Amino acid sequence: MAKPDINVIARVPFFSKLPTTDLNVILSITQVRQIDKDHNLFSQSDPADGLYVILSGKFQIYIFSGIKGAPPKVLATIEEGQYVGEYGLIDGNPRSASVKALTSGEVLYLPSQAFAFLLETQPSIAICVIDYLCGVVTNAPK
Predict the structure, then answer these.
(1) Which of 64, 68, 66 is nearest to 100 (CA)?
(2) Cβ neighbours for 106, distance < 8 A, ≥ 6 positions apart
(3) Going by C-beta distance under 8 Å and a sequence separation of 6 or more, which residues neighbour residue 76?
(4) Rg of the Cα trace of the chain?
(5) First to last CA, the chain
(6) What per-residue confidence (pLDDT) applies to 100?
(7) Predicted confidence (pLDDT) per residue in 18-58, tens digit
(8) Any idea what the Cα angle at residue 133 is, between residues 31 and 129, rounded to 5°?
């Protein structure tokens, strides 16, 4: 499978201001994965393992309420060009929701461990991510 265009990574807000050279470095550590219909990318409470960018297909983000027998609550449906799991790259907290494939599709997977290594060895990427996160915190409603 050929790697997608760097614009796929550039759409993720963490990376949107990075130069092409840094985007290519990030893209070099990604993997394209085929996902079958009804397969979960990850489940609520799973350890965070990386970022997923949707290349094709439709995916549903949902949570369980904790009430026995209650149906899951659907939070969103995502498709090509959208992404999920970006904060897991940074905070390492367990997944707060589950993501299931509504159709078969492909995702671009950026593993957390490889990304952590990039942050240590590529300061320009780390600075860009920190700048983005500072902007989120600064612009958060009070």
Answers:
(1) 64
(2) 32, 33, 34, 35, 54, 55, 56, 57
(3) 60, 61
(4) 16
(5) 45
(6) 97
(7) 999 999 999 999 999 999 999 999 999 999 999 999 999 99
(8) 45
- pLDDT-derived band at 88 (thresholds 50, 70, 90) equals confident
Query: d(Cα 57, Cα 36) in Å, to the nearest integer?
Result: 10
Residue 86's CB is within 10 A of a number of other CB atoms, namely 19
Q: HSE-up of 109 (CA within 13 Å, CB side)?
A: 15
C-beta of residue 58 within 8 angstroms of C-beta of residue 113: no
| Cα 125 off chain centre by | 16
Phi and psi dihedrals of 122, rounded to 5? -125, 85
Distance CA 41, CA 33 (A): 10
**pLDDT at 141 (0 to 100):** 67
Q: How far is it, in rounded angstroms, from Cα 9 to Cα 17?
A: 11
Helix (H, G, I), strand (E, B) or coil at 68: coil
| Residues 6+ positions from 127 with CB-CB distance below 8 Å | none
